[in-house]
Design a protein that fits this description.
heterodimer; A: about 260 residues; alpha/beta; Lambda Exonuclease, Chain A; 2 domains; six-stranded mixed beta sheet; about 50% helix; globular; B: about 270 residues; alpha+beta; three-stranded mixed beta sheet; 9 helices; about 15% strand
């Protein structure tokens, strides 16, 4: 039996909004420098050679290679992650969710059509499916209670994709931001990025937060206000303002990944 | 010689591309239209042919049959929602998207939507799927609004794409356009694209521009046609010069030729 508190001790939106009067001016100059640094760094790794296929960096590439993992558990974890993401998308447009698991599956079917993970879900026996449904429901309660209603004026967008080609297309940075709020047309920085994970937050979540900020900066040429990660497993929120130091750390991490990918080719 | 400019997507760069668009306007006359019609007639077809920038970018190769989904519905709903917001600025994008979907559903319920139309497809969806369509449309409309709000020139969301039926050639050309920017007597067209531009993005933009010029009653071409890829943060633009229009028309005809060859190969 899952016990729930009557209300969440934390409102994620309030934490993301922060003190409106203390927002810095939008930084529109750092992006070009970071891009040039990345191009130089990549050149030092791959030189003039052309990899057979582009080296693709994703947020998942920044996670530490784990120890032995049971593949069946991995698939269930991924399905849970996808379903929670679907619920976030529904919540983002003000859809009231009554039956978290069923509605998330319906939304997923509408979005993806047939795929390997969805087939895996269809093949689950009743017991396995019921376990997953309980799990998803518990995570969704944590998510929806902690998020609270998302203000429409903040222009919440879910599953925002970004692609950045570097080194003449030999390196591609790909990213999907679960939730983005705020718009880039203001003088002050006001775009907030949120990564929602069903795992507890760890060092990898920090790297993912930084990666989101770096790719968003390269994509829009404007440094976002804040990058955050929320765990539906623990209800924890990590949030930090984006500054040059954070972006430089992510730059180092991305170069490390590119180096590993290049060596493994 | 054709043109293709590449810029990073920022409000300044977008305004600069509009500002620096060619001042002299190019128009397609009746001779141009007759010549295009003759070339399309030369490519025999037993059925009505539809050619657009997408088929040009795919070099006429057949793609999977069109079906409605959150990704294919987002542009229609998102653009219509932003058009509402442009008329009623107090309206939020989220509400505008919901109103638009409600209107489409109402049309389906009243029997006005034909089978296979967006309204008809929406009416068959359950609530979570409808919400997902709203989420995609909101993403689209927000990206377009972000681009539009940074413009220093008056803009509008066109009520429809540009269509041109090539006389006596059983061919319909469709040019997509998302934002029309008015600059003095000329216009600059912006098209929002998902993903990142590929190698055939330039020919695609040229085809869209040529179709837009053909669909114009006076044959006047846009001063510049800009492709905006927000996911990649990239702007590509082609100028409304006669050489670009000719290149666009050539690509459209070549696509029709490849489509015919592919059909013949399949039939054989």
């Amino acid at each position: 039996m899952t016990l729930l508190l009557p209300s969440s001790p934390l409102n994620v939106v309030d934490a993301l909004r922060g003190d409106r009067t203390a927002r810095p001016l939008a930084d529109m100059t750092s992006a070009s420098g970071l891009r040039a640094q990345l191009e130089d760094g990549i050149y030092e790794i791959i030189g003039k050679s052309n990899p057979a296929s582009p080296l693709i960096v994703r947020a998942s590439s920044l996670r530490q290679p784990g120890a032995t993992t049971d593949l069946s558990f991995l698939a269930i974890g991924r399905i849970r992650g996808v379903l929670i993401n679907q619920l976030l998308r529904l919540h983002c447009v003000g859809e009231h969710v009554d039956h978290a698991f069923e509605e998330a599956v319906d939304a997923w079917r509408a979005e993806a059509g047939a795929n390997e993970l969805l087939n895996r879900l269809e093949q689950m026996d009743d017991d396995e499916r019921a376990r997953l449904a309980t799990d998803v429901t518990a995570h969704s309660v944590t998510l929806l209670r902690s998020l609270g209603p998302l203000p429409s004026r903040w222009m919440p967008r879910s599953t925002v994709r970004a692609t950045q080609r570097l080194a003449a297309g030999n390196v591609v940075l790909r990213d999907v931001i679960d939730l983005m709020m705020g718009m880039n047309n203001a003088h002050s920085a006001c775009v907030v990025l949120l990564d929602v994970t069903t795992s507890p937050l760890d060092e990898a979540a920090e790297r993912t937060m930084r990666y989101h900020a770096l790719v968003e900066t390269l994509r829009t040429s404007i440094v976002p206000l804040r990058t955050s990660a929320f765990s539906t497993a623990t209800g924890e929120l990590w949030s930090t303002g984006v500054d040059h130091e954070l972006l430089t750390r992510s730059y180092d991490e991305v170069l490390d990944v590119i180096d590993q990918l290049w060596k493994s080719q | 010689m054709t043109t293709l400019l590449h810029r990073r997507h920022t409000a300044e760069q977008l305004n600069e591309l509009i500002e620096s668009a060619p001042k002299s306007l190019v128009a397609l006359n009746d001779d141009h239209r007759r010549s295009l019609s003759a070339r399309f007639r030369g490519v025999a077809s037993n059925e009505h042919r539809r050619v657009d920038a997408w088929s040009v970018e795919r070099a006429g190769q057949p793609s999977t049959p069109f079906r409605w989904g959150p990704n294919t519905a987002r542009r229609t709903i998102g653009n219509a929602a932003l058009r509402r917001v442009a008329f009623r600025p107090e309206l939020l994008i989220c509400d505008a998207v919901h109103f638009e979907i409600d209107d489409l559903l109402l049309r389906a319920v009243s029997g006005s939507a034909r089978a296979g139309s967006l309204g008809h497809w929406l009416s068959c969806l359950n609530h979570p799927a409808l919400a997902l369509v709203s989420a995609e449309a909101m993403n689209w409309a927000t990206q377009l609004m972000e681009a539009a709000q940074g413009l220093s020139y008056p803009w509008l969301i066109p009520a429809s794409d540009a269509y041109y039926d090539v006389a006596t050639a059983r061919t319909t050309l469709r040019g997509r356009r998302d934002l029309v920017v008015e600059r003095d007597a000329s216009r600059v067209i912006i098209r929002l694209r998902a993903g990142a531009p590929g190698k055939s993005a330039g020919p695609g933009l040229r085809s869209d521009m040529t179709i837009d010029a053909l669909a114009n009653a006076d044959g006047i071409a846009p001063a510049r046609f800009i492709g905006l890829w927000p996911e990649a943060g990239v702007l590509l633009s082609v100028d409304g010069t006669m050489s670009d229009l000719r290149a666009g028309a050539r690509d459209l005809v070549r696509t029709a030729v490849v489509q015919r060859r592919t059909r013949l190969a399949i039939a054989a």
